[in-house]
Amino acid sequence: MTGVILAPAGVAFFLLRSRTGMTLGFTLGEILTSAAIITVALVGLLGSSTVGLTSVDNARRSSTALFLANRRIEAIKTFAMSTAGAQGFGNVTSANFPAEGYTTITINGTSYANYRTTTAITDNPGGLANTKLVQVSAFYLDSAGGTERSVQMSTFLAER
Q1: Taking the model in full, what pTM does it have?
Q2: Which among 40, 56, 100, 157 could bridge 132 via Cys, Cβ 3.0 to 4.6 Å?
Q3: Average pLDDT for residues 8-16, to the nearest whole number?
């Protein structure tokens, strides 16, 4: 047999009556204790989900920075292979690829305001004739507090 009893504050207690006639159920103290344990567990889960979301957002920003660095390297490769005036392998210098600052990078109408890039080009690295070492760094502001982070990509170019 089951029944519901209303407590003075309007709280319902679910009671069971056993075959021996004893009343079974939960006391107010047991219910409050279990509610407190569940609350602590939920607060912990919410805290870890915030950390997880921040990590996902920082990974997205890092991935975008890698995309921008790769885009810059591909532009330099295209420039090096071009036969147009003032382009070509001999004109691949850092001066022709100046730093891109925050709020200056826009691609197909999409602004990358929280990103910047720098390019360093070294002629004949390690004594290798007719080669260039291209190093691109892409910087971004993380989601937590605007701390600047960076990713780097590099490639070698050889004159054909």
Answers
A1: 0.70
A2: 157
A3: 54
